[in-house]
Write a structure and sequence with these properties.
The chain is α+β, with helices and mostly antiparallel strands. The protein contains 3 helices and 7 strands; from the N terminus they run αβββββββαα.
Length: about 150
């Protein structure tokens, strides 16, 4: 039951509710957010972001790739507002600057190790094996009922 609830929260929830989930694939936020954690982020207006907030954003100049880092400085105001970020495990701030406009994603909480399972289930082989396991269990239950001796 708990597994089904977790699947619904991770797969269906972000499509219907105001949050998103991401697996942490790097160690730059350790120990605050360990490698392999699943993070839950909520939408936030850029003007509400403050130093110390942990945000998730698209890595500048990259087609794919999300980064979850802490805000270490905010410079400027209004449409020229710039955010500087840094991973907690990193010694230096990130080389890029983020323009703070519109809406972004602020860290709400994380579940350690869950990101590993989510990433595994994202593979075709794991989905096939999960479906095969369900089919085997249902078939075994049906055959057990079919081969069960009639009540006396």
């Amino acid at each position: 039951m708990l597994t089904a609830l977790a699947v619904v929260a991770l797969a269906v929830g972000p499509r219907l509710l105001p949050y998103r989930t991401y697996a942490i694939t790097g160690g730059s936020m350790a120990p605050t957010i360990p490698l392999g954690s699943e993070v839950i982020v909520r939408p936030v207006r850029a003007d509400r972001l403050r130093v110390g907030d942990i945000i998730t954003f698209h890595k500048p100049n990259a087609v794919h790739g999300l980064v979850t880092h802490r805000i270490v400085a905010v410079r400027g105001r209004g449409p020229s507002k710039i955010i500087l970020t840094k991973g907690d495990a990193n010694k230096l701030p990130d080389a890029w600057r983020i323009h703070a406009v519109g809406t972004g994603w602020r860290y709400a909480f994380s579940v350690p190790y869950l990101g590993y399972a989510v990433q595994l289930l994202a593979t075709a082989l794991a989905r096939f094996l999960a479906l095969a396991l369900v089919a085997i269990v249902l078939t075994a239950a049906g055959l057990r009922k079919l081969w069960q001796p009639p009540p006396a």
